[in-house]
Amino acid sequence: MLRKLIARMGLRLVRFRLEGSAPPIKNYVCLAAPHTSNLDGVIMVLFANSLGIKLSWMLKAEAYRFPFRWILNWLGAVPVARKAPQGLVGQLAERLEQADDMVLAIAPAGSRSKGTHWKSGFYHVARAANVPVVPAFLNYEKRTGGFGPVIELTGDVAGDMDRIREFYGDLKARYPDQLTPVRLRDEQRQLESDTNDNA
Fold first, then answer.
1. Backbone torsion region of residue 64, taken as left when φ is above 0, otherwise alpha when ψ lies between -120 and 50, otherwise beta
2. By the 8 A CB rule, do 61 and 80 touch?
3. 151-190 per-position pLDDT tens digit
4. Do residues 40 and 34 touch, judged by C-beta distance below 8 A?
5. Are 27 and 101 a contacting pair, CB within 8 Å?
6. Dihedral through CA 178, CA 155, CA 28, CA 149, nearest 10?
7. Helix (H) or strand (E) holding 30
8. What sign has the CA pseudo-torsion 116, 122, 128, 133?
9. How far apart (Å, rounded) are the C-alpha atoms in residues 43 and 37?
10. DSSP string of 65-85?
11. Cα separation of 19 and 148, whole Å?
12. Is the peptide bond before 34 cis (omega within 30 degrees of 0)?
């Protein structure tokens, strides 16, 4: 209750308003977008906490050490070993599969600077763990944010991304010139593969 109260006070301080409600599911990958400034992550955490949602996020195992483990756990850190045999995707998917209540937040743009495409890790983690994705959002034009619809991934990368693109279409980032387009390299690969299969 205290976490919710503090989060709602924080939203008032940054002059943002919650739009919508919490997703009706407990296990999913949360898309943290847009991501063009450090403030985006802070505001998204405030929105999540105001709805009673505890976000989990990836952390290098090397940074997960005494005496900081307790606070990192409280903040939702999920330690992963970059050189583990199953890779980052396998480790995160395993954690999601084993959890009854886990919201794994991933910023698919990868960085605050403008890139050519989103990173596909979120897609592969969700598919491997058999959980949906839920797009979180911030709209700096209207000073609103929250969580969007539950999107079940089908394996049709372009089709799934079309639904995600449609959701993010009109939202305004804090720095629009640094916004990475909502697309994956995998979409082009799948298109090329389908073209070759039909040739």
1. beta
2. yes
3. 999 999 999 999 999 999 988 999 999 999 999 987 877 6
4. yes
5. yes
6. 70
7. strand 27-32
8. negative
9. 11
10. -TTSHHHHHHHTEEEE-TT-T
11. 9
12. yes
C-alpha dihedral, 184 to 185 to 187 to 193, nearest 10°: -170
Q: What is the pLDDT of residues 130-154, one digit of tens each?
A: 999 999 999 999 999 999 999 999 9
Q: Which residue has the tokens 């593969």?
A: 193
CA distances from 40 to 52, 101, 121, 147, 168 (A): 19, 24, 20, 14, 15
- 31-52 pLDDT, tens per residue? 999 888 888 988 988 999 999 9
Confidence of residue 81 (pLDDT cuts 50, 70, 90): low
> Which pLDDT value is given to residue 68?
65
Q: Which amino acid is at 31?
A: L
Write down the H helix ranges in the chain.
2-13, 38-50, 69-75, 87-98, 121-129, 157-168, 185-198
Tell me the sheet residues that pair with 115: none
Pairing type for strands 144-147 and 133-139 reads antiparallel
